[in-house]
Amino acid sequence: MKRNIVIAAVTAAALIGGGTATALASTGDDQGSARQAANTKLSDDGNRDDKDDRDDRDDEAARVSSSDVTAPEAIASALKHTSGTVVSAELDDEDDSDKVVWKVDVLSGDDAWHSVSVDPSNGKVLGAHTDDEDDTAQVRAALKGSSVTAEEAAKAAAGKGVVTSVGLDEDGKDKSWEAETRKSGGAEQDWKVDLKSGKVTADRDDAQDDAADDADDQD
């Protein structure tokens, strides 16, 4: 008897609260849809990130193939125009345009910074302007006692592939030249060039970052 009363009460509650039951069911569906949408967004974001990475590699490959002038040649050309110490050289788009140039940063004897643009097709200087930098003392200190110039570092790294950039790493304990190379197959690699011996070694920090990125991709 009691069991029948309980069943009747539950049935009545279900009939009276039908709207609530429907609402709860609807809420469950909404949560499922939200989870599905979130998973879809994560998948789309991952696909976009992969596409962006491929686009960056394609852009870099295009820049390399468009340059007939090597990093050492671009540095030598910049120094003929503006005397001083080259701190970095990079093959890059000019002011985010489609035009590719070598950008060479030169620290002159009066501690003025100059950015020199070099044509990658013929090595001619396209222009130069003065930059404001606040790390002059740090750069001078890092280069003190160095016997390897940026040009020599670029030549040393050229044995590993086409040098697309070279620059001074003045931070941390182990100061060095850093060079980025690209091989014909498109693979990029970062290298450290000793400031005194010119010895080229693989950038272990870069290798660790690549390994971490690969692990994230697998997850």
Automatic annotation (TrEMBL):
Residues 42-51, 170-205 have a biased composition (Basic and acidic residues). InterPro entries: PepSY (IPR025711). Residues 73-128, 149-203 form the PepSY domain. Residues 206-219 have a biased composition (Acidic residues). It holds the Pfam family PepSY. Residues 24-72, 166-219 are annotated as: Disordered. It comes from the Bacteria. This is Peptidase propeptide and YpeB domain protein. Residues 1-25 form the signal peptide. Residues 28-41 have a biased composition (Polar residues). Keywords: Signal. Gene3D superfamilies: 3.10.450.40. The keyword Signal applies.
